[in-house]
């Protein structure tokens, strides 16, 4: 499994390209339209998109990828926020319209382009926030969106956010036996082992 990380220009989320064969890619959180140019630069055809949640800073590239043939998915119940209530207008950002092709649920296992994906529902930052375990053979990584960052967690004061729900989701992540790499929606990469030891929100 190869992972390519695209840092945002200005305020937006990290975008991740995952590929098993070096030709076809799963994208997590296509934050900006330039995601298509990056895919072309990497010589990758994007087949699927998974959203960790529907805020404007995570979805700006969905429309161009949809037009290019990708299928877009998110946690069931998050579609309305992603497509219509993503806070783009409130933050002065125009988000090109797109549609969600499929939804996933907590605990679901997907097979996408040679990659195994397990869905973890982690409400709190939004009601439909999700984390994704992605694995291939004996390699596994966790994409945490805006649920868990290096040294911090996501805010809960925006529409559909809940501090109580986030606390339960953080407990869910703390209970995982997995201690490997995590890739967050903003900031730098970490490991769950490091966060369990050093992140005040996650310390055991």
Helix and strand composition category: alpha/beta
- Strand arrangement, largest sheet? 1-2-3-4-5-6
Largest sheet: 6 strands, mixed
Alpha plus pi helix count: 6
Q: Name the CATH architecture.
A: 4-Layer Sandwich
Task: Describe the protein's architecture and organization.
The protein has 204 residues and is of the alpha/beta class. It has a single domain (2-198), classed as 4-Layer Sandwich (Metallo-beta-lactamase, Chain A). Helices cover 21% and strands 31% of the residues. The strands form three sheets. Strands 1-2-3-4-5-6 form a six-stranded mixed beta sheet. The longest helix is centred in the last third of the chain and has 12 residues, at 163-174. It starts with a strand and ends in a 6-residue tail after the last helix.
What characteristics describe this protein?
21% helix; Metallo-beta-lactamase, Chain A; alpha/beta; six-stranded mixed beta sheet; 204 residues
Secondary-structure topology with pairs:
Elements: E1 2-6, E2 15-19, E3 24-28, H1 35-41, E4 45-50, H2 56-59, H3 62-67, E5 71-75, H4 79-84, E6 102-104, E7 109-112, E8 115-121, E9 130-136, E10 139-145, E11 148-149, E12 152-153, H5 163-174, E13 181-184, E14 190-191, H6 192-198
Parallel strand pairs: 3-4, 4-5, 5-6, 10-13
Antiparallel strand pairs: 1-2, 2-3, 7-8, 8-9, 9-10, 11-12, 13-14
Brief summary:
The protein is an alpha/beta fold. The protein is 21% helix and 31% strand. The protein has one domain: 4-Layer Sandwich (Metallo-beta-lactamase, Chain A), CATH 3.60.15.10.
